[in-house]
Design goal:
TIM Barrel; alpha/beta; eight-stranded parallel β-barrel; binds 3-methyl-2-oxobutanoic acid; elongated
């Protein structure tokens, strides 16, 4: 098998130009990074969706830089080929350009991310420009932006009226003009995406935005069937891993309770002379009353 070359930002632009779909997926730890690397994806996002799918929160808002740095560093250790993007979590970039640059630098320096992602237009456009000027590539994110879901009235599709779609178009253009190398379009009607795609010249990765984008992204736990609860309309499940995990752990529990596990093959051997010597050494120390003798 020929080794794949590392995915770079110019490579993503080439893929867009060539009409080659870009595959992006999230990952939050070392084993999931190894899985997505082996599966041959192009871009890996350490999304702040970690708050919901791995940390048990009911929105992305509570996750902070400390958790994102730990998760992103673990993912970095499992990746070589895909481009690694780290989400700047809610509260880590909005206050000022300085705050945004400082936290973007932490994701790059401490966790090894190749780029960072921020949500929304408005002041985020200024933050994106500042981070890019500081030398760090930025991915923008428009449409349904989970960090400000309160302002949007919940986790629901955006751009369903001409006025709101035009606002998304303006945000997307402003982010691209600020230097974002790519954009995420989330939960936007497919027909709107088709029109918006005529407005931006950087690669666009969609999630719930239809087939017209340059690539697609899904959350690892959603696509593999690990998440519970509400599954967004735009998710396609490619496996039922949670079921397999539950079956595996239940089988282990049954084996332990039935004294089937561990078997002889799972134990370490010792020379019989050594165990005889051990008995001799312990002689005179009777077994404690609750001690069970070894089976067999
Ligand atoms: O946090 C995340 O996982 C994301 C993707 C859904 C794009 O932002």
């Amino acid at each position: 098998m020929t080794a794949r070359t590392r995915v770079t930002i110019p490579r993503l632009a080439e893929m867009k130009a060539a009409g080659e779909p870009i595959v992006m997926v999230t990952a939050y730890d070392h084993p999931s990074a190894q899985v997505v690397e082996k599966a041959g994806v192009d871009v890996v996002l350490v999304g702040d969706s970690a708050a919901m799918v791995v940390l048990g929160h009911d929105s992305t808002v509570p996750v902070g830089m400390t958790e994102m740095l730990v998760l992103a560093a673990a993912v970095r250790r499992g990746l070589t080929v895909p481009l690694l993007v780290g989400d700047l979590p809610f509260g880590s970039y909005e206050r000022s350009d300085e705050q945004a640059i400082e936290n973007a630098q932490r994701l790059v320096k401490e966790a090894g991310c190749d780029a960072v992602k921020i949500e929304r237009g408005g002041t985020s456009v200024d933050r994106a420009r500042a981070i890019v000027r500081a030398g760090i590539p930025v991915m923008g994110h428009v449409g349904l932006t989970p960090q400000t879901v309160g302002l949007l009235g919940g986790f629901k599709a955006q751009g369903r009226t001409a006025a709101s779609a035009a606002r998304i178009a303006a945000e997307a253009r402003a982010l691209a003009d600020a230097g974002c190398f790519a954009l995420v379009f989330e939960a936007i009607p497919s027909a709107v995406t088709e029109i918006l795609m005529e407005q931006v010249d950087v690669p666009v990765i969609g999630i719930g935005a239809g087939p017209a984008t340059d690539g697609q992204v899904l959350v690892f736990h959603d696509l593999l069937g690990i998440s519970t609860g509400h599954t967004p309309k735009f998710v396609k499940r490619y496996a039922e891993v949670r079921e397999a995990m539950t079956t595996g752990v239940a089988a282990y529990a049954a084996d332990v309770r039935g004294r089937v596990f561990p078997g002889p093959e799972h134990g370490y051997p010792i020379d019989p002379d050594e165990s005889a010597e051990l008995r001799r050494l312990l002689d005179g120390r009777p077994p404690l009353p609750w001690a069970r003798s070894a089976p067999g």
